[in-house]
Amino acid sequence: MLKGAKRDRDGILDGFIVIEHRGYPMLQRGDRAVSGEVYWVPDLCWPDLDDWEEVPERYRRTCVFLRDGRSAWLYEAGSEQR
């Protein structure tokens, strides 16, 4: 599913928190900072990832800016998980 993906430098994202939903961690907008792994993912992988992450039912994919200025896509909790 992630063929061709490459690990990048870790990043820090402001304005989010980590919540747990049915035993899985999820990002949700909040008042904290979250640090984590960052990957470069080929465009052809996104449709399969969206299906795996159950977009838009469980998650939504959002473009954000990390603290260091890089833009990144992330999956955040959909409205029903909030």
Give an account of the 3D structure.
- The protein has 82 residues and is mainly beta.
- It has a single domain, classed as Hypothetical upf0131 protein ytfp (Roll), CATH 3.10.490.
- Helices cover 9% and strands 51% of the residues.
- A two-stranded antiparallel ribbon has the order 1-4.
- The protein is globular.
Draw up the topology in text.
Blueprint: E1 6-7, E2 11-21, E3 24-36, E4 39-40, H1 46-52, E5 59-65, E6 71-77
Antiparallel strand pairs: 1-4, 2-3, 5-6
Return Rg in Å.
13 Å
* Ends apart, CA distance between termini: 27 Å
Number of domains: 1
Secondary structure category: mainly beta
In CATH terms, the superfamily is Gamma-glutamyl cyclotransferase-like
Number of strands: 6
CATH class: Alpha Beta
Which CATH-level-2 architecture? Roll
Task: Determine the number of helices (DSSP H or I, runs of at least 4 residues).
Answer: 1
Arrangement of strands in the largest sheet: 1-4
How would the global form be characterised? globular
Mean of all residue-level pLDDT scores: 93
Report the portion of residues in β strands.
over 45%
CATH topology: Hypothetical upf0131 protein ytfp
Task: Describe the main β-sheet briefly.
Answer: 2 strands, antiparallel
Report the order of strands and helices.
EEEEHEE
Proportion of helical residues:
under 10%
Q: Give unreliable regions as ranges.
A: none
